[in-house]
């Protein structure tokens, strides 16, 4: 039951005390609004105290814009308080009492902004969800440029699997791939800093850096001892689409990641291959860590017949579905996947499999199928929050499960065998379908 229905003596006292705590941090907040909750007499008394404290000259210095901003802030705070029960209000009160205690008693310098930022970050971290996180302005900037086309760093995409910092995939042609980092590697240390319990955004921020500088990653790999990899950071240009004809009318299309320009570039490359006599397609999504869902859905729309591609259900029960408008599949299709195929690439693979638009070849995918929304704030920071889980057209979950291929083909150690058995299997399958 909300506090607006619990306006007994205890609730009024707690709300009034919380508001008083808030007002201590915003001395010019218009206290007349407190009458909505704590009553007109309390508000008038508090207003009189404020007037005596700050003096007429200071009050006159507060401009109309600042008054309007403070009025808006308190209105929103009142809205949130009105949705809380008494226990939640008491917990909120504890936060402001601690902040007030630090301001009054702590011997070092205290910044209210720093305290509040720490509270926000800790609140999100308490979810124990590696994909929900608070991003300060620098981290949010890093996040924003990741899918925009270029950034400076090692060129590896990270996730969390079994509570360990895990390489989803190195980006093709980047220092990370060239150094030998592989999908499934565990990042144990970054420049000597242990990554146990390290937030995902912090790890990404530590690995990124100016072009030409170096970062040392301590990597754990199954069956091998931990090893240090020294990587020279470089400017990573995301050229996410490549393709060529392989003979017999079979075209090979590689998508390394889904970024802002992937769908447009994919359409152009597909058209090029069509002009060269394309009759069947191999779509390579191996070590594709995902990216922008819209880009993945648009590429799926080139192969998946009309109907659902993927859907998710929000906390309030609303169902959001992405659709393909393709009348019917145009080509026999084989899709290559492995443990480095994640997120948007798993969504595409799942849609192909569920609709029968093609055949999946390779090994089980990563299993990252959750939906994150990014909510930016006025100070260029943001919160990335998991709000739902993805489901394939047949309603299968992806998160923590992954997609099993139709034809399982393990890849041998590259040191022993340079053959691409998964690609060869796809070629033979499509040749059969073209007969």
> How are the strands ordered across the major sheet?
10-11-12-15-16-19
SS content category: alpha+beta
Describe the biggest sheet?
6 strands, mixed
State the share of residues found in helices, binned by percent. Answer: 25-40%
Characterise this structure:
This protein has 435 residues and is an alpha+beta fold. The protein folds into three domains: 3-110, no CATH class; 150-237, Pdz3 Domain (Roll); 241-373 and 386-434, 2-enoyl-CoA Hydratase, Chain A, domain 1 (Alpha-Beta Complex), CATH 3.90.226.10. The chain contains 13 helices and 19 strands. The chain has helices at 9-25, 35-38, 40-61, 64-82, 86-105, 112-125, 137-146, 175-179, 200-207, 262-275, 293-300, 344-355, 421-434, and strands spanning 133-135, 150-153, 156-161, 164-170, 186-190, 193-194, 214-220, 227-232, 234-237, 241-245, 250-255, 280-284, 307-313, 319-324, 333-337, 359-362, 370-376, 382-391, 407-408. The strands form five sheets. The protein has a six-stranded mixed β-sheet with strand order 10-11-12-15-16-19, sandwiched between helices. Strands 1, 13, 14, 17 and 18 form a five-stranded antiparallel β-sheet that branches. Strand 10 and strand 11 form a beta hairpin. Helix 11 (293-300) packs parallel to helix 12 (344-355).
